[in-house]
Every structure is written in C-alpha cells, then in structure tokens.
Amino acid sequence: MEFQIGDSGVTAPKGFLAAGGSAGIKKGNTRDLAMICSNVPCAAAGTFTTNLVKAAPVKWDQHIVYECPKAQAVVINSGIANACTGEEGLENCRKTAEAAAEVLHVPEDAVLVASTGVIGQQLPVDKIEAGVAKLAPFLSGTREAAATAAKAIMTTDTKPKEVSVSFPVGGKTVTIGGMCKGSGMIHPNMCTMLSFLTTDAAISKQLLQKALSTVIADTYNMISVDGDTSTNDTVLLLANGLAENPEITEEGEDYQNFVRALFEINRVLAKKIAGDGEGATALFEVRMIHVDTVENAKILAKSVITSNLTKAAIFGHDANWGRILCAMGYSGVTFDPEKVDLYFESAAGKIQIIRDGVAVDYSEEEATRILSEKEVTAIADVKTGDAEATAWGCDLTYDYVKINADYRS
Predict the structure, then answer these.
(1) 85 appears as a binding residue in the annotation
(2) Contact 255/236 with Cβ under 8 angstroms?
(3) Tag placement on the chain: N or C end, fewer CB within 10 Å?
C-alpha cells in the first residue's frame, strides 16, 4: 500500500477544525493557545508520560481517554505546564474544559486539555477562558488554521511540526493529520513533547488505542534530546469516522494498513522533534543492525543517542568513534566489541570507521565532511543476530546550555 505523505496538519482529515492565537499567557502578544475540534464526536486514544510526576492535564486526559466514550475537542496552552500544581491545577483543567464545552456546544467530558511550559506555576485560567471564547469563532478547516495552531503550541521550538498521510481503506480515502511540539526535556518513554493526531477513519476505540500504543514504541520512545523525561508528555489521537470507510473492528488488512500509516506519521513527527532539539544543528540518527533481539537493539541505540560525549562530537563534526563504542558498552547489553563495524553516513556520503572493533584507515577530512551535514547517521553492525532498531537525537551545542540556563527568566 502506498501512502501519500503531505505537510498538512490536523485539519487535513475531514471534519476537523483548528485555531491558534494569543491568550496573554506568554509575555508580549505571542501565540500561546490552540484549539482542535471535530464536527462530530470522536473515538479517542492517548499515551502519556511515564514520569511519576504527572501534570494536571495528563491526569485529566487519562480520565477522558480511558473512561469516557467520546471526545470532540482539545485545548492546548503553551507558556505554563500546569505541573506540580495540586488540586488547583486539576480544577483549572476542568474550568478550561468547561469554557470550551460552552462555546463549542459539546460535553465537558469530551474536551481534552494539554499544557506545556514552565513547571510549578498556576495557569491564569481567566485568560484561558477568555482566550477560548475569542478563538472559537476562528476555528476553521483550512491549511492556514492548522499552521496557526501548530505555531501556538511551541515553546523553545524553532519551527512548527506538522505532517499528514492519506491511504485507501475499504474503497475510501482515509487521512491522518498531526502536529506536535518538542525541543527540550526530551527523552525516551515520551518526551516535553505534545502530539495531536486527527483522522477521519472509522475505527473502534479499542483498536484505535492499540494502534497508537503499538507505534509509540518505535517512534516517540526512540528519541532523546537531553535525557529528561517530562511531566507533561501526551499523545492524543481522535478518530471521527467521516471518511465513511467500513469501520475497522478487527485486526485484518485494513487495521494493519492503518497502523503502518500511523507509524509513518509519528516517525516523521518524532524525527522533527529530535532534529529541532534545543540549540541543535543536526539530527543524529543511530541504527543498530544485526543484533540478537529488538529490545537489545533499542537499548544500544538509545544509549548512543543519549551520550553527551557522542552528541558533543557530532556538534564538532568529529568522528570520535570511541565514544559510540563506549556508550554501547555501558548500555547493559552483552555483545562482542571486537566484532562491531561502525559507519557514518549523510547526504555527503558514507564511510566505514571501524571494522571488528578496530579503526580502519579512513580519511578524517572525509569523515568531517560527512558529519557536517544537517542529518547524520551512525550505523553499528553488532553481528549477534538479525534484529535492528533506530533511535533519533541531536548534537549538543553551546546554545542548549544558554537556552536552559535562563528558561524561566
């Protein structure tokens, strides 16, 4: 099955509207509030942070996704995370949902909420309530509306992150659209990342959740910027059925095609997050091949992308391969270092750096040229089996420290 990949966002599927604007949460007249709404009630699925410290909106959304039959709208604010805010934080989630429910004419328990920004501050809920009322008339299914919403959820992101994919299901064209944000506090097991996915597919709530949970493991859970797992990580998926395909209720061919498309859209979004890491100049991809198990391949790949020494070497365009082998060695996975082959690859070419654990006679100048591209891949052949895995990260730059040293002030 072929996918048609596009750069549209959450309004690409039929029946979804979006808007973005300023509620006055951030300093200046900066976009800081976004809304997504479906014309009809949706099946909803979600995955959330594994951090024991969970923000109020995570708790609110978990209740709706797991216990309520339908959802229809999402309200997202940037600037304040509404994390570590106690009962007042949860009450502010309810007030936000209540405000949206009133202007959108949907049930309060059909409104999901999400927040991103500084931890520990209470939301200016009066501003959010007013912002919701102000944004509602601008909800639209246009490409521009999706783009505006994607910009409104950004914090330290340097660019909005959107994608769409269309594919056939039962003689109908089904579309999935998505937008996400994330740049720092990004680490496997979801990251400070928020992702919002919409689809016009007709699919049961049970299979929608299963599909989302399935693809998370090899997309968002395989990226890292700085090793910190956020309090607010949330991925939400709404399906309104307006494509009018035969409802997907069994794990047959239609379901498998849906999963493949959902994987592709989340893989693209995950890579956009990793490549836009705070201060980053390069997307750093790590592929582990010929490993004994998929789980071990994942552990090895994650160990390399989270190595600060390796990330610094990528920033310096330095083929310091010892750091990669070192990170593999402390990962906890058993392998023979004297059998590992390592390659660097980018748009500028591919070069082998080590063979059987020992450096080959390679050109440092050529290696530097390959490592100077905006997307760089390290490929490690472990020679213990047939499994493989890919993880994504970024280089570690001076600007990462600058950004995070004065983030609150």
Answers:
(1) no
(2) no
(3) C
* Residue 224 marked as a ligand binder: no
Q: Is 339 annotated as a binding residue?
A: no
Maximum Cα interatomic distance, the chain, rounded to a whole number of Å: 69
Q: Is the pLDDT of residue 191 over 80?
A: no
Supply the DSSP symbol for 157.
-
With a cut of 60, say whether residue 186 has pLDDT above it.
no
105, with CB counted inside 10 A (0-12, 13-18, 19+), is exposed
Residue with tokens 């994987």: 263
CATH, range 4-275:
3.60.70.12
Active site residue 148: no
Instruction: Assess whether pLDDT exceeds 80 at residue 114.
Output: yes
What are the counts of helices (DSSP H) followed by strands (DSSP E) for the chain?
11, 15
| Parts of the chain belonging to CATH 3.60.70.12 | 4-275
Residue 409 marked ligand-binding: yes
Q: Where in the chain is the domain with CATH 3.10.20.340?
A: 283-405
Find the catalytic residue in 47, 85, 175, 192.
Answer: 192
Q: How far from 225 is each of 268, 292, 394, CA to CA, in Å?
A: 16, 27, 6
Average pLDDT over residues 80-97: 95
Check whether 402 is labelled as a binding-site residue: no
14-42: string of b/e by CB count within 10 Å (b at 16+)? bbbbbbbbbbbbbeeebbbbbbbbbeebb
Q: What sign has the CA pseudo-torsion 32, 142, 161, 234?
A: positive
